[in-house]
Specification:
By secondary structure, the protein is of the alpha/beta class. The protein is built from six helices and 20 strands. The strands form two sheets. The protein has a ten-stranded mixed sheet with strand order 2-1-5-7-9-11-14-16-18-20, with helices on one face. Helix 4 packs across helix 5.
């Protein structure tokens, strides 16, 4: 039974006007967005979508080959987006999907042209500014055949927020020999409840890479994106780095279905409970051969907290190759002693080990985004120890 009561939040009446220049934003809001990877200067970005509370305030495509619209405008332009809208997520799945279906506030529609290689990332931000605001969004991303795209989504809340709820539907469509890298950085607060619902499909030779970073407190988050590899040779990779300080409850995971020959799936998660609770889920289902899947979940408990790792493998045909490794524990004392013997004190040694554990190099992020994450890790260390 979900303990979130949507009646506690306002789902109407919080609409700002258009903001043509993101540099006009309130300095405090800009700072929160920066920690979510959003560049208000829009340098080296292919486009930007920003929603604040119940509506879009900025939507712009900067580079050719990629179309960025508010989802409401896309539904009008493309006659309801048949074959895409509400095809990967069931609108009757739960009260959160029903809320998004019945009272849509906004969300982004991003589509690449066939064969377009979009050099710079598209950035989006779903921002909660008002107190006790509930936000319903629906995002649709279509990466046409032979094209490539990187989306950086920064979700955040205004400093000092007394409470907010974010309900986000996302549907991904990766075409033949196309590649989508989707990087999500959550920068919430200890009063925010979050319910994303995500699904997607990858066609023949397509690649879907999902990076997820959560380093700041959140009251209650539940996320379980599911990707179906329906074309021969399709690939999906999920990488996540999650920290849950005291008061945070995070139920997060990923699901990959290998539905065609020569498909490959990989889920790698790194979690740290520093007083909070993490449920780390992972599922790979092998429904065709040859197909390979690997799931790796590693967790550290620092100063209390709970990590519940739930790795699942399901093979339904002969010859499928699936593997997993899961480990939850504390930092080994011999590792600390090794670094202390080389001149570090105990706190420095622990910090060095944690930074190595939270290494996001595997995500292949732009340098400025990597720098933002490193800064956030530094600021989060006081919550970890």
């Amino acid at each position: 039974m979900d303990k979130i009561d949507l009646h506690d939040f306002r789902f109407s009446g919080s609409q700002l006007g258009e903001i043509p220049d993101l540099r006009q934003l309130d300095p405090a809001d800009k700072a929160e967005m920066l920690m979510s990877g959003v560049d208000v200067e829009e340098r080296e970005r292919a486009g930007t979508y920003l929603q604040v509370d119940h509506g879009r305030v900025h939507c712009k495509s900067i580079q050719p080959g990629v179309e960025i619209l508010d989802i409401k405008d896309a539904l009008k332009k493309y006659d309801g987006l048949p074959g895409y809208f509400w095809t990967q997520v069931d609108k009757d799945k739960d009260e959160f999907t029903r809320s998004a279906a019945e009272n849509l506030h906004g969300g982004y529609f991003v589509r690449t042209e066939k064969g377009a290689k979009i050099a710079d990332p598209v950035q989006s931000c779903l921002f909660l500014k008002g107190d006790m605001v509930g936000q319903n969004v629906h995002n649709v991303v279509i990466v046409e055949d032979d094209s490539e795209l990187h989306i950086i989504t920064g979700c955040s809340v205004a400093h000092g927020s007394k409470g907010a709820a974010h309900l986000g539907i996302s549907e991904f469509f990766v075409g033949k020999n196309a590649k989508l890298t989707f990087t999500m950085i959550h920068n919430w607060a200890d009063t925010t409840v979050v319910r994303p619902r995500t699904g997607g499909v990858v066609d023949e030779g397509g690649v879907f890479v999902n990076n997820y970073v959560l380093l700041k407190p959140v009251k209650d988050l539940q996320s379980y994106p599911a990707i179906r590899l329906n074309g021969r040779g399709a690939v999906a990779r999920f990488n996540s780095v999650i920290v849950a300080p005291k008061g945070s409850h995070v139920d997060s995971g990923s699901r990959i279905e290998l539905n065609a020959p020569d498909t490959r799936g990989e889920i790698i998660s790194r979690t740290i409970a520093s007083g909070g609770t993490i449920v780390a889920r992972g599922f790979i289902g092998g429904n065709s051969v040859p197909a390979k899947g690997h799931l790796e979940c590693k967790g550290l408990i620092l100063g209390g907290g709970v990590i519940h790792a739930i790795p699942e493998l399901l093979g339904s045909v002969d010859g499928v190759e699936l593997s997993h490794e899961a480990a939850v524990g504390k930092i080994a004392q011999e590792e600390i002693e090794y670094l202390m013997a080389r001149g570090l004190d105990e706190e420095e040694a622990t910090s060095t080990i944690v930074r190595g554990f939270l290494n996001v190099d595997i995500m292949g992020l732009p340098k400025e985004l990597q720098d933002v994450i490193e800064k956030t890790i530094s600021e989060s260390e006081k919550d970890m120890f």
